[in-house]
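Why do we bother with a discrete structure alphabet at all? Because it lets us treat a fold like text: something you can write down, compare, and reason about line by line. To make this less abstract, here is a complete entry for ABC transporter substrate-binding protein. Read it the way you would read a sentence in a foreign language you are learning: slowly, and without expecting to understand everything at once.
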Amino acid sequence: MDDVQAEIEALTRALDVHSLRILVAIDQTGSISGAARTLGYTQPTITQHVQRLESRLGTTLVTRAARSARLTPAGALLAEHAPRIDASLTAAATELSRLLGRRAGAVRLVGPPEAITVILAPVTSWLATHFPGLEVGVTESTDSEHAVSSVQGGRADLAIVFDIIGPGRHRGSHRAASTRSTFLFAEEIVAVTTAAVNTDGDRVTPQRLSAQPWITGSGTCSDAVAAAIARPADARDAAVSRTDAALSLASCDRGTVFVAESSLQGIELPTGVRAFALEPPMTRRASAVTLADAAASPTIGIALRGLVSHRPAPADIDEVLTARRRSDSHRARFPSSSPRFLNPTEESAPMPLLTSGRAGRATTAAVVGALALSACGGTATDAPKSVGADTGEQIAEITVALPGSLSNLYVGQESGILNYYVASITQEGLVSIDDSGRVQPALAESWEQPDDTTYVFDLRDDVQFQDGTPMTAEDVVFSLEQARNETASPGFSGLLASVDTIEQSGDGKVTIRLSKPDAAFTKNMSTAGTAFITSKAFWERHNGAVGTPGALLLGTGPYQVTEFVPDSHVSFRRADTWRGEAPAVQNIRVNFVPDESTRLVAAQSGDLDMAFNVPLAQTSQWEKLQTMRVDYVNDLSYVGLYFNPNIAPFDDPKVRETFAHLVDRSAYVDKLLRGHGEPATAIMTPESLVSTVSADQARSELATVPQWDYNLDAARAALAASNHANGFTTEILTPNTGPQLGKAAQALAQQLGDLGIVLTVREVPIEEWLASLDASSDHGVGLMWYFSTSGDPAELPNYLLGAGNPSGYSNPAITDLLDRANAEADPDARIDLLLQAETLQARDAINVPLWWGQSATAFADDLGIRTNSPYTFVSSWPTQLYRAAPK
């Protein structure tokens, strides 16, 4: 082969059809953002594809101006040939699909026996219910390695694999060639034994059981535990290939077995048989493996969403249950939006077939990195429109757009921030949170605290549920008992882990006793926390299926739910049982509109009165609407980088410092957020402190936390001093519901690239991103995006620094400070303890704050709201609406 032919072969291998489709879309629309809209991708994804192809070809294909993009001669040449290439490949794929007997709506799953029991059986049942058009096949493999080989050999689309992580193991990501691995969940390894073990808690070291005969083999995790403690084989050991056989032997006093906690689902251990968590903990990870080239398939995407949303029930061991409750309570703060029906033309659809010709030029610019941040638009626009005075008129109905879809109205079952907004229309707590974050009376007219762990609430005597029945102390006790039940309320139970007893202590009195002091407890008794009071009779009449379309919700608030259609809308009417002044709005319809363009069109057509969470990328368009205004408010949200120091290369502090010095907080806020946010100096937000100190003092105190300033030279020096001076490749995931996070990650990636570090930014469905927020996942660097509702200053530090944190970070001094802060009754002393904890973690560069966020809410010009604070929409917010006079 001569040199010319060799060069042609190399260029041919560098081309891929997806990148060619992108070039055609850029040519047709005249911009990166226009191509993104046409193809259904995000701007960062488009930019990544172009940059990769340019790198492979060694030439520039797209030139970018401030508000446009055009193809170079090389790019135009490829775009001209692209439609014929695409058509030929599509035809070949169609004929191949027919030959192989495959259909577009099919997915083939494979896994070892326990994966079928624990994961595939429940997930395929869920898929059959929610995606009846999807044909699902399941095949059993002998082990995880065999499952992966089935995917590599084209015999399956998705493989479920297990691996075990020992204590203190510094790990990287090890993936089979040409595959992509998606972390699903991690669970603890537990010991099942009849041995007499004296322990103060539910944990035991494996060494204490090493003298017993062990049950080993592929049906257990015992071999991995033995390897971790260097236990030699014992002649009395037995080996089995099935988990049920291993548990049967252990139950019959034939030895000790180590299994994953999900192996105990539905099993009641006989008397004398005990299950212990391990000290230090060991975990088994479950992952889904698919071919890298097939990961974008719509059917595989649907199956992955089901898989990452599934978590098996934890073992009935207090230590394990506590950790799971804590994790579930925090994970529930994020919305989830899986599609309900299989429709390959909708979200996650493949790119459309290429066509030739040119369309109108779009004008929105793209973000390709820190050097191009100015292309995102300027800072915040002119001052917002003012609103007229209250006319006192009644409002027959308002229509509200919610940027997501709800499948259950009960916040205990589905605890995303949007669920709080909706449930607060109809339900109340014992207390409420005012605009300054202070606790105020609600269903309880007063309360007292006889000691550090006892709360006595005196209930109002004029409260009715919307069905006309009076609220009683029995109803309150029942509602709170359900809130701390991990089955009825997985989103709440972790936040109420300190509750010991709840009881009616007199006529109209409820007494709650805690197992230990909890400074956040009172706030949690609001609808910003965990107290959504309902009728016991209502709950029991519907067998606990509250929040569903058939049962709806029943509360004591100013509005009653009249209709709920999941993924469509929920309707309310003004209740005549409300004890307060009748609100101006008579009826409310909340439409679920996840697509941001659809919401904008509805607003332009005059079909909306309110819209929550206007996307920052569209705020300038909303601000230009003649009939609406946009209000911005700090929303208690936090965005920051976090690192897992147990995963190489982020076990190297100098690598973490390198990343920290390349974070340009001010540029992110000014350019990416258009000024609608604030550079963060700490994990805690200023608004979480304003119930104790002024806003200015809050910012001053948070600024005392050590900072990693944006400094290219310092970043270069830190990398040079690390064990990875020549750079490395790593990956970061961003949620598809937060495009601003993806843009920030792209900017960081470009800065890192200048130092020889390749950071691949991969946007994934929010369910996959949520699953990755686990210390057992393969990702050493991640982006945290957290919404607090209660505004308690310890909420986020407890999540990011406490037990079970996403970083796998352990610092005994910080643990002690958090424990003391959680028990501290004095607000000033509590803040000081939390600042000390933040100072210690900042020095270790585990969490690097980026920004504190703002939410944007759109209102019709003739609809006023009396106050708009971080706490407004987690209380009875429609009572604050009024008909505004023209300005």
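What the structure line is telling us, in plain words: The two ends are 78 Å apart (CA to CA). The chain is about 30% helix and 20% strand.
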